[in-house]
Amino acid sequence: MVFPDLQTYSIIKKLRYSFDSFGYVEIFLNSIEKFNEKLSDGIPFVYNNEFYLINPDITSRLTLKNLKNNTRIFYVYEALNKYNQSTLKAGIELVNNDETASNEEVLRVLINSLESLGIYDFNIDISLSNIFIDRIGKKNYEMVRPYIIDGNIMEIQNLDIDDAIKKEIIDLINGRGKETDIKLLNDLSERVSDPRIIIDTGTIRYMNYYDGLIFEVYSSNYFIGAGGNYRIKNKNACGFSVDIESLAKILKEDKK
Amino acid sequence: MIIAIPKGKLMEDSINAFSIAGLDLNIEDNRKLLIKDRKNEMILSRAMDVPLYVENYADIGIAGTDTIMERKCDIMVPLKLNFGKCRLSICSPKNYKLKDLKGKRIATKYPEITYSYFKKHGIDVEIVKLSGSIELAPLMGMSDAIVDIIQTGKTIRENKLMEIKKIMDVSASLIVNRLSYKVKYDEIRDIIEKMGVKEYEYQ
Fold this sequence. Notes:
Chain A is built from 9 helices and 11 strands. Chain A has helices at residues 6-21, 58-62, 99-116, 131-136, 138-150, 153-158, 163-173, 183-192, 244-255, and strands at 25-26, 32-34, 43-47, 50-54, 71-80, 86-95, 123-128, 197-199, 210-218, 223-232, 235-243. Helices cover 38% and strands 28% of the residues of chain A. Chain A has a domain at 6-127 and 225-255: BirA Bifunctional Protein, domain 2. By secondary structure, chain B is an alpha/beta fold. Helix content of chain B is 33%, strand content 30%. Chain B has 8 helices and 11 strands. Chain B has helices at residues 11-20, 50-56, 65-71, 111-120, 136-139, 154-158, 178-183, 185-202; strands spanning 2-6, 34-36, 41-45, 60-64, 75-80, 86-92, 105-108, 126-129, 145-150, 162-170, 172-177. Chain B has a 6-stranded mixed β-sheet with strand order 2-3-1-4-11-5. Chain B has a 5-stranded mixed β-sheet with strand order 8-7-9-6-10. In chain B, β2 (34-36) and β3 form a beta hairpin. Chain B is elongated and about 55 Å long. The A-B interface holds A 82, 123, 125, 149-155, 174, 176, 200, 216, 218, 220-223 and B 72, 76-80, 176, 178-179, 181-183, 185, 189, 192, 196, 199-200.
Protein backbone atom coordinates (compact mmCIF):
# COMPACT_ATOMS: atom_id res chain seq x y z
CA MET A 1 0.00 0.00 0.00
CA VAL A 2 1.22 3.51 -0.87
CA PHE A 3 1.89 5.64 2.22
CA PRO A 4 0.11 7.96 2.69
CA ASP A 5 -2.69 6.25 0.73
CA LEU A 6 -4.35 9.18 -1.02
CA GLN A 7 -7.03 7.08 -2.66
CA THR A 8 -8.29 5.68 0.66
CA TYR A 9 -8.16 9.19 2.10
CA SER A 10 -10.17 10.54 -0.83
CA ILE A 11 -12.82 7.78 -0.57
CA ILE A 12 -13.31 8.29 3.16
CA LYS A 13 -13.44 12.09 2.73
CA LYS A 14 -16.15 11.80 0.07
CA LEU A 15 -18.15 9.24 2.10
CA ARG A 16 -17.97 11.49 5.20
CA TYR A 17 -19.20 14.40 3.13
CA SER A 18 -22.02 12.34 1.64
CA PHE A 19 -23.21 10.92 5.01
CA ASP A 20 -22.96 14.38 6.56
CA SER A 21 -25.08 15.90 3.78
CA PHE A 22 -27.93 13.53 4.80
CA GLY A 23 -27.69 14.75 8.42
CA TYR A 24 -25.65 11.86 9.83
CA VAL A 25 -23.19 12.55 12.69
CA GLU A 26 -19.89 10.72 13.02
CA ILE A 27 -19.36 8.55 16.11
CA PHE A 28 -16.10 7.20 17.51
CA LEU A 29 -16.21 3.84 19.27
CA ASN A 30 -13.52 2.25 21.42
CA SER A 31 -11.55 -0.49 19.73
CA ILE A 32 -11.88 -2.73 22.82
CA GLU A 33 -15.21 -3.70 24.42
CA LYS A 34 -15.94 -5.81 27.49
CA PHE A 35 -17.27 -9.18 26.40
CA ASN A 36 -21.02 -9.42 26.02
CA GLU A 37 -22.75 -12.41 24.43
CA LYS A 38 -24.82 -10.06 22.27
CA LEU A 39 -21.68 -8.75 20.54
CA SER A 40 -20.81 -10.36 17.18
CA ASP A 41 -17.34 -10.94 15.74
CA GLY A 42 -14.24 -9.31 17.29
CA ILE A 43 -11.05 -10.92 18.59
CA PRO A 44 -11.46 -12.21 22.16
CA PHE A 45 -8.79 -11.87 24.84
CA VAL A 46 -8.47 -12.07 28.63
CA TYR A 47 -6.88 -9.38 30.82
CA ASN A 48 -6.91 -9.41 34.64
CA ASN A 49 -9.50 -12.23 34.64
CA GLU A 50 -11.92 -10.20 32.51
CA PHE A 51 -13.00 -11.08 28.94
CA TYR A 52 -12.72 -8.47 26.18
CA LEU A 53 -13.25 -8.21 22.42
CA ILE A 54 -11.14 -6.21 19.97
CA ASN A 55 -13.27 -4.41 17.37
CA PRO A 56 -16.53 -6.37 17.56
CA ASP A 57 -19.18 -5.71 14.93
CA ILE A 58 -20.43 -2.11 15.22
CA THR A 59 -24.15 -2.77 14.75
CA SER A 60 -24.16 -5.42 17.50
CA ARG A 61 -22.56 -2.78 19.80
CA LEU A 62 -25.21 -0.23 18.96
CA THR A 63 -28.00 -2.66 19.86
CA LEU A 64 -26.78 -2.36 23.48
CA LYS A 65 -26.90 1.45 23.58
CA ASN A 66 -29.73 3.83 24.41
CA LEU A 67 -30.39 5.72 21.20
CA LYS A 68 -33.26 8.15 20.67
CA ASN A 69 -35.72 7.95 17.78
CA ASN A 70 -34.46 9.81 14.70
CA THR A 71 -30.80 9.34 15.57
CA ARG A 72 -28.57 9.43 12.51
CA ILE A 73 -24.98 8.31 12.96
CA PHE A 74 -22.10 7.22 10.79
CA TYR A 75 -18.70 5.70 11.42
CA VAL A 76 -15.40 4.83 9.77
CA TYR A 77 -13.63 1.99 11.53
CA GLU A 78 -11.07 -0.76 11.27
CA ALA A 79 -12.73 -4.19 11.28
CA LEU A 80 -10.80 -7.42 11.70
CA ASN A 81 -11.62 -10.26 9.35
CA LYS A 82 -11.41 -13.98 10.14
CA TYR A 83 -7.67 -13.99 9.30
CA ASN A 84 -7.12 -11.11 11.78
CA GLN A 85 -6.38 -8.76 8.88
CA SER A 86 -7.57 -5.18 9.15
CA THR A 87 -10.18 -3.88 6.76
CA LEU A 88 -11.52 -0.33 6.75
CA LYS A 89 -15.27 0.02 6.76
CA ALA A 90 -17.67 2.95 6.72
CA GLY A 91 -21.35 2.87 7.42
CA ILE A 92 -24.46 4.54 8.73
CA GLU A 93 -27.18 3.66 11.23
CA LEU A 94 -30.58 5.30 11.36
CA VAL A 95 -32.83 4.84 14.41
CA ASN A 96 -36.38 5.52 13.25
CA ASN A 97 -39.60 3.82 14.24
CA ASP A 98 -41.02 4.25 10.76
CA GLU A 99 -39.57 1.07 9.25
CA THR A 100 -40.64 1.79 5.66
CA ALA A 101 -39.23 5.33 5.70
CA SER A 102 -35.94 4.30 7.31
CA ASN A 103 -35.40 1.41 4.87
CA GLU A 104 -35.96 3.81 1.99
CA GLU A 105 -33.67 6.50 3.41
CA VAL A 106 -30.84 4.05 4.09
CA LEU A 107 -30.95 2.67 0.54
CA ARG A 108 -31.00 6.21 -0.87
CA VAL A 109 -27.95 7.19 1.23
CA LEU A 110 -26.16 4.05 0.03
CA ILE A 111 -26.89 4.74 -3.64
CA ASN A 112 -26.00 8.42 -3.31
CA SER A 113 -22.73 7.68 -1.47
CA LEU A 114 -21.54 5.23 -4.13
CA GLU A 115 -22.46 7.64 -6.90
CA SER A 116 -20.63 10.46 -5.10
CA LEU A 117 -17.49 8.31 -5.47
CA GLY A 118 -18.14 7.87 -9.20
CA ILE A 119 -19.36 4.27 -8.84
CA TYR A 120 -22.52 3.65 -10.84
CA ASP A 121 -22.15 0.02 -11.90
CA PHE A 122 -23.52 -1.86 -8.89
CA ASN A 123 -26.57 -3.81 -7.76
CA ILE A 124 -28.36 -4.02 -4.45
CA ASP A 125 -30.09 -7.33 -3.71
CA ILE A 126 -32.85 -7.01 -1.14
CA SER A 127 -34.71 -9.64 0.87
CA LEU A 128 -36.13 -10.28 4.35
CA SER A 129 -34.22 -11.80 7.28
CA ASN A 130 -37.00 -14.19 8.28
CA ILE A 131 -38.35 -15.02 4.87
CA PHE A 132 -37.64 -18.76 5.12
CA ILE A 133 -38.93 -19.13 8.70
CA ASP A 134 -42.12 -17.24 7.80
CA ARG A 135 -42.80 -19.50 4.83
CA ILE A 136 -41.73 -22.94 6.07
CA GLY A 137 -41.65 -22.68 9.87
CA LYS A 138 -38.70 -22.66 12.28
CA LYS A 139 -38.40 -26.44 12.61
CA ASN A 140 -38.15 -27.02 8.85
CA TYR A 141 -35.83 -24.04 8.50
CA GLU A 142 -33.37 -25.41 11.09
CA MET A 143 -33.24 -28.65 9.10
CA VAL A 144 -32.64 -27.05 5.69
CA ARG A 145 -30.58 -24.00 6.73
CA PRO A 146 -27.16 -25.46 5.74
CA TYR A 147 -28.53 -26.40 2.30
CA ILE A 148 -30.07 -22.95 1.84
CA ILE A 149 -26.72 -21.30 2.67
CA ASP A 150 -24.98 -23.65 0.21
CA GLY A 151 -27.68 -23.20 -2.45
CA ASN A 152 -27.82 -27.01 -2.54
CA ILE A 153 -31.15 -27.63 -4.26
CA MET A 154 -30.35 -31.31 -4.99
CA GLU A 155 -30.04 -32.10 -1.25
CA ILE A 156 -33.27 -30.20 -0.52
CA GLN A 157 -35.06 -32.28 -3.16
CA ASN A 158 -33.84 -35.45 -1.42
CA LEU A 159 -35.07 -34.43 2.05
CA ASP A 160 -37.91 -36.26 3.73
CA ILE A 161 -40.25 -33.24 3.95
CA ASP A 162 -43.50 -32.23 2.31
CA ASP A 163 -43.18 -31.52 -1.44
CA ALA A 164 -45.01 -28.20 -1.07
CA ILE A 165 -42.40 -27.06 1.49
CA LYS A 166 -39.56 -28.18 -0.79
CA LYS A 167 -41.08 -26.17 -3.64
CA GLU A 168 -41.42 -23.11 -1.37
CA ILE A 169 -37.73 -23.32 -0.37
CA ILE A 170 -36.48 -23.86 -3.93
CA ASP A 171 -38.64 -21.01 -5.26
CA LEU A 172 -37.19 -18.68 -2.62
CA ILE A 173 -33.59 -19.74 -3.36
CA ASN A 174 -34.18 -19.24 -7.09
CA GLY A 175 -36.25 -16.09 -6.55
CA ARG A 176 -33.65 -13.62 -7.81
CA GLY A 177 -35.23 -10.97 -9.98
CA LYS A 178 -38.54 -12.82 -10.15
CA GLU A 179 -41.93 -11.43 -9.22
CA THR A 180 -42.81 -11.81 -5.56
CA ASP A 181 -45.85 -11.24 -3.36
CA ILE A 182 -43.77 -9.78 -0.49
CA LYS A 183 -45.30 -6.37 0.06
CA LEU A 184 -42.39 -4.83 2.00
CA LEU A 185 -39.92 -5.64 -0.78
CA ASN A 186 -42.23 -4.63 -3.63
CA ASP A 187 -43.10 -1.33 -1.91
CA LEU A 188 -39.48 -0.54 -1.10
CA SER A 189 -38.36 -1.30 -4.65
CA GLU A 190 -41.11 0.94 -5.97
CA ARG A 191 -40.37 3.79 -3.53
CA VAL A 192 -36.63 3.88 -4.19
CA SER A 193 -37.31 3.25 -7.89
CA ASP A 194 -33.78 2.38 -8.99
CA PRO A 195 -33.19 -0.34 -11.60
CA ARG A 196 -30.11 -1.51 -9.68
CA ILE A 197 -32.29 -2.79 -6.84
CA ILE A 198 -33.08 -6.48 -7.33
CA ILE A 199 -35.38 -8.53 -5.13
CA ASP A 200 -33.44 -11.72 -4.35
CA THR A 201 -35.26 -13.93 -1.87
CA GLY A 202 -32.22 -16.25 -1.78
CA THR A 203 -30.10 -13.57 -0.05
CA ILE A 204 -28.86 -14.70 3.38
CA ARG A 205 -27.18 -12.52 6.03
CA TYR A 206 -25.41 -14.26 8.90
CA MET A 207 -25.82 -11.64 11.65
CA ASN A 208 -28.66 -12.78 13.89
CA TYR A 209 -29.75 -9.26 14.92
CA TYR A 210 -31.41 -8.52 11.56
CA ASP A 211 -35.17 -8.24 11.68
CA GLY A 212 -36.90 -7.28 8.43
CA LEU A 213 -35.06 -5.92 5.41
CA ILE A 214 -31.61 -7.30 4.56
CA PHE A 215 -29.51 -6.29 1.56
CA GLU A 216 -26.17 -6.80 -0.16
CA VAL A 217 -24.48 -4.34 -2.52
CA TYR A 218 -21.92 -5.48 -5.07
CA SER A 219 -20.30 -4.62 -8.38
CA SER A 220 -19.55 -7.16 -11.10
CA ASN A 221 -16.25 -8.07 -9.40
CA TYR A 222 -16.51 -7.17 -5.72
CA PHE A 223 -18.83 -7.36 -2.73
CA ILE A 224 -19.11 -3.75 -1.59
CA GLY A 225 -21.12 -4.09 1.59
CA ALA A 226 -24.33 -5.11 3.28
CA GLY A 227 -26.93 -4.00 5.75
CA GLY A 228 -30.45 -4.33 7.01
CA ASN A 229 -33.11 -3.56 9.53
CA TYR A 230 -32.78 -4.47 13.23
CA ARG A 231 -33.99 -3.49 16.72
CA ILE A 232 -32.24 -1.33 19.29
CA LYS A 233 -34.05 -1.85 22.60
CA ASN A 234 -37.51 -1.99 20.97
CA LYS A 235 -36.74 0.84 18.56
CA ASN A 236 -36.51 0.23 14.84
CA ALA A 237 -33.13 0.81 13.17
CA CYS A 238 -31.58 0.30 9.77
CA GLY A 239 -28.03 0.66 8.49
CA PHE A 240 -25.26 -0.55 6.23
CA SER A 241 -21.50 -0.73 6.03
CA VAL A 242 -19.27 -0.67 2.96
CA ASP A 243 -15.75 -2.00 2.51
CA ILE A 244 -13.29 0.78 1.63
CA GLU A 245 -10.78 -1.60 0.02
CA SER A 246 -13.43 -2.96 -2.38
CA LEU A 247 -14.40 0.61 -3.32
CA ALA A 248 -10.72 1.44 -3.98
CA LYS A 249 -10.35 -1.64 -6.20
CA ILE A 250 -13.46 -0.76 -8.21
CA LEU A 251 -12.24 2.80 -8.73
CA LYS A 252 -8.77 1.58 -9.76
CA GLU A 253 -10.28 -0.83 -12.32
CA ASP A 254 -12.59 1.88 -13.63
CA LYS A 255 -9.56 4.12 -14.27
CA LYS A 256 -7.95 1.41 -16.40
CA MET B 1 -15.68 -18.28 -16.27
CA ILE B 2 -12.75 -18.71 -13.86
CA ILE B 3 -12.51 -22.35 -12.78
CA ALA B 4 -10.36 -23.81 -9.98
CA ILE B 5 -9.37 -27.43 -10.59
CA PRO B 6 -7.76 -29.57 -7.86
CA LYS B 7 -4.49 -31.21 -8.85
CA GLY B 8 -3.96 -34.84 -7.89
CA LYS B 9 -6.56 -37.59 -7.44
CA LEU B 10 -9.61 -35.40 -8.16
CA MET B 11 -8.22 -33.72 -11.28
CA GLU B 12 -9.34 -36.10 -14.04
CA ASP B 13 -12.86 -36.61 -12.66
CA SER B 14 -13.20 -32.85 -12.13
CA ILE B 15 -12.32 -32.09 -15.75
CA ASN B 16 -14.87 -34.74 -16.83
CA ALA B 17 -17.54 -33.21 -14.58
CA PHE B 18 -17.02 -29.78 -16.14
CA SER B 19 -17.07 -31.33 -19.60
CA ILE B 20 -20.49 -32.88 -18.78
CA ALA B 21 -21.63 -29.37 -17.85
CA GLY B 22 -20.56 -28.10 -21.26
CA LEU B 23 -17.19 -26.62 -20.25
CA ASP B 24 -14.47 -28.28 -22.27
CA LEU B 25 -11.32 -27.46 -20.38
CA ASN B 26 -8.32 -27.78 -22.58
CA ILE B 27 -5.61 -28.77 -20.09
CA GLU B 28 -2.79 -30.37 -22.05
CA ASP B 29 0.11 -29.29 -19.89
CA ASN B 30 -0.75 -29.63 -16.21
CA ARG B 31 2.58 -28.13 -15.15
CA LYS B 32 1.10 -24.75 -16.04
CA LEU B 33 -0.85 -23.46 -13.07
CA LEU B 34 -2.85 -20.83 -14.92
CA ILE B 35 -4.32 -21.69 -18.31
CA LYS B 36 -6.43 -19.32 -20.37
CA ASP B 37 -8.42 -20.10 -23.47
CA ARG B 38 -10.87 -17.91 -25.36
CA LYS B 39 -13.74 -18.56 -22.96
CA ASN B 40 -12.32 -19.65 -19.62
CA GLU B 41 -9.47 -19.22 -17.21
CA MET B 42 -8.37 -22.33 -15.30
CA ILE B 43 -6.41 -22.42 -12.08
CA LEU B 44 -4.69 -25.70 -11.24
CA SER B 45 -4.27 -25.65 -7.51
CA ARG B 46 -3.45 -27.93 -4.59
CA ALA B 47 -6.72 -29.64 -3.60
CA MET B 48 -6.52 -28.10 -0.12
CA ASP B 49 -6.37 -24.56 -1.59
CA VAL B 50 -9.28 -24.78 -4.07
CA PRO B 51 -11.90 -23.42 -1.58
CA LEU B 52 -9.62 -20.44 -0.89
CA TYR B 53 -9.25 -19.66 -4.62
CA VAL B 54 -13.00 -19.92 -5.09
CA GLU B 55 -13.68 -17.66 -2.10
CA ASN B 56 -11.29 -14.98 -3.37
CA TYR B 57 -10.86 -15.24 -7.13
CA ALA B 58 -12.40 -18.08 -9.13
CA ASP B 59 -16.10 -18.37 -10.02
CA ILE B 60 -16.42 -22.11 -9.51
CA GLY B 61 -14.30 -25.12 -8.58
CA ILE B 62 -14.33 -28.67 -7.32
CA ALA B 63 -13.09 -29.66 -3.88
CA GLY B 64 -13.52 -32.49 -1.39
CA THR B 65 -16.00 -31.94 1.45
CA ASP B 66 -13.07 -32.54 3.84
CA THR B 67 -11.12 -29.53 2.52
CA ILE B 68 -14.29 -27.42 2.37
CA MET B 69 -14.92 -28.08 6.08
CA GLU B 70 -11.28 -27.59 7.01
CA ARG B 71 -10.88 -24.28 5.16
CA LYS B 72 -14.15 -22.78 6.50
CA CYS B 73 -14.38 -20.47 3.47
CA ASP B 74 -17.44 -18.37 2.72
CA ILE B 75 -18.47 -20.21 -0.44
CA MET B 76 -21.55 -22.03 -1.73
CA VAL B 77 -21.60 -25.82 -2.08
CA PRO B 78 -24.58 -26.37 -4.39
CA LEU B 79 -23.82 -29.93 -5.50
CA LYS B 80 -22.19 -33.04 -4.08
CA LEU B 81 -20.60 -35.10 -6.84
CA ASN B 82 -20.39 -38.82 -7.23
CA PHE B 83 -16.61 -39.19 -7.15
CA GLY B 84 -13.75 -38.68 -4.69
CA LYS B 85 -15.69 -40.77 -2.19
CA CYS B 86 -13.89 -41.75 1.00
CA ARG B 87 -14.16 -41.07 4.75
CA LEU B 88 -12.32 -39.06 7.35
CA SER B 89 -11.65 -41.23 10.40
CA ILE B 90 -9.78 -41.48 13.67
CA CYS B 91 -7.24 -44.31 13.52
CA SER B 92 -4.90 -45.64 16.15
CA PRO B 93 -2.50 -48.55 16.78
CA LYS B 94 -4.58 -49.44 19.88
CA ASN B 95 -8.30 -50.18 20.00
CA TYR B 96 -9.14 -47.00 21.93
CA LYS B 97 -12.69 -45.90 22.69
CA LEU B 98 -13.29 -42.23 21.84
CA LYS B 99 -13.19 -41.13 25.49
CA ASP B 100 -9.83 -42.94 25.97
CA LEU B 101 -8.27 -40.29 23.71
CA LYS B 102 -8.62 -37.59 26.41
CA GLY B 103 -5.27 -35.83 26.77
CA LYS B 104 -3.74 -37.84 23.91
CA ARG B 105 -1.89 -36.50 20.88
CA ILE B 106 -3.67 -36.61 17.51
CA ALA B 107 -1.70 -36.10 14.29
CA THR B 108 -3.59 -34.76 11.29
CA LYS B 109 -3.58 -32.43 8.33
CA TYR B 110 -7.12 -31.41 9.33
CA PRO B 111 -6.59 -29.48 12.59
CA GLU B 112 -9.85 -27.48 12.32
CA ILE B 113 -12.11 -30.50 11.76
CA THR B 114 -10.24 -32.50 14.44
CA TYR B 115 -10.49 -29.68 16.98
CA SER B 116 -14.22 -29.16 16.30
CA TYR B 117 -14.98 -32.89 16.48
CA PHE B 118 -13.26 -33.50 19.82
CA LYS B 119 -14.62 -30.24 21.25
CA LYS B 120 -18.15 -31.33 20.29
CA HIS B 121 -17.58 -34.56 22.24
CA GLY B 122 -16.06 -32.72 25.22
CA ILE B 123 -12.67 -34.41 24.87
CA ASP B 124 -9.46 -32.38 25.24
CA VAL B 125 -6.73 -33.56 22.89
CA GLU B 126 -3.41 -32.18 21.70
CA ILE B 127 -3.36 -31.71 17.93
CA VAL B 128 -0.14 -32.18 15.93
CA LYS B 129 -0.41 -30.60 12.48
CA LEU B 130 1.36 -32.57 9.73
CA SER B 131 1.28 -32.07 5.94
CA GLY B 132 1.35 -35.67 4.70
CA SER B 133 2.19 -39.33 5.50
CA ILE B 134 0.17 -38.94 8.70
CA GLU B 135 0.30 -42.73 9.35
CA LEU B 136 3.98 -42.32 10.25
CA ALA B 137 3.26 -40.26 13.36
CA PRO B 138 2.06 -43.12 15.68
CA LEU B 139 4.86 -45.37 14.40
CA MET B 140 7.43 -42.72 15.36
CA GLY B 141 5.80 -42.12 18.74
CA MET B 142 4.81 -38.58 17.73
CA SER B 143 1.11 -39.20 18.32
CA ASP B 144 -1.31 -41.68 19.90
CA ALA B 145 -3.81 -41.53 17.05
CA ILE B 146 -4.38 -39.84 13.71
CA VAL B 147 -7.27 -38.24 11.86
CA ASP B 148 -6.93 -38.94 8.16
CA ILE B 149 -8.66 -39.92 4.93
CA ILE B 150 -9.41 -43.61 4.38
CA GLN B 151 -10.35 -44.92 0.97
CA THR B 152 -9.81 -48.69 1.00
CA GLY B 153 -8.16 -49.00 4.42
CA LYS B 154 -5.09 -50.66 2.91
CA THR B 155 -2.60 -47.94 3.94
CA ILE B 156 -4.00 -47.93 7.47
CA ARG B 157 -3.66 -51.71 7.81
CA GLU B 158 -0.16 -51.70 6.30
CA ASN B 159 0.91 -49.23 8.96
CA LYS B 160 -0.65 -51.31 11.78
CA LEU B 161 -3.42 -48.86 12.51
CA MET B 162 -7.11 -49.55 13.06
CA GLU B 163 -10.07 -47.31 12.30
CA ILE B 164 -11.73 -46.48 15.60
CA LYS B 165 -14.32 -43.86 14.61
CA LYS B 166 -15.56 -42.28 11.39
CA ILE B 167 -15.80 -38.47 11.59
CA MET B 168 -17.42 -37.79 8.21
CA ASP B 169 -18.10 -39.15 4.74
CA VAL B 170 -16.18 -37.29 2.05
CA SER B 171 -16.98 -36.71 -1.61
CA ALA B 172 -16.05 -34.19 -4.28
CA SER B 173 -18.38 -31.18 -4.46
CA LEU B 174 -18.98 -28.30 -6.80
CA ILE B 175 -18.19 -25.04 -5.03
CA VAL B 176 -19.19 -21.53 -6.12
CA ASN B 177 -18.03 -18.02 -5.25
CA ARG B 178 -20.94 -16.17 -3.58
CA LEU B 179 -20.56 -13.04 -5.71
CA SER B 180 -20.25 -15.04 -8.95
CA TYR B 181 -23.46 -16.88 -8.03
CA LYS B 182 -25.20 -13.50 -8.16
CA VAL B 183 -23.55 -11.90 -11.18
CA LYS B 184 -23.28 -15.07 -13.30
CA TYR B 185 -26.47 -16.62 -11.95
CA ASP B 186 -27.87 -18.15 -15.19
CA GLU B 187 -24.53 -19.57 -16.33
CA ILE B 188 -23.79 -21.12 -12.95
CA ARG B 189 -27.29 -22.55 -12.44
CA ASP B 190 -26.97 -24.13 -15.90
CA ILE B 191 -23.68 -25.80 -14.89
CA ILE B 192 -25.18 -27.03 -11.60
CA GLU B 193 -28.19 -28.50 -13.37
CA LYS B 194 -26.20 -30.24 -16.11
CA MET B 195 -23.69 -31.65 -13.61
CA GLY B 196 -26.48 -32.63 -11.23
CA VAL B 197 -28.52 -34.50 -13.83
CA LYS B 198 -25.47 -36.51 -14.83
CA GLU B 199 -24.68 -37.29 -11.19
CA TYR B 200 -28.15 -38.75 -10.70
CA GLU B 201 -27.78 -40.86 -13.85
CA TYR B 202 -24.57 -42.36 -12.39
CA GLN B 203 -26.32 -43.29 -9.16
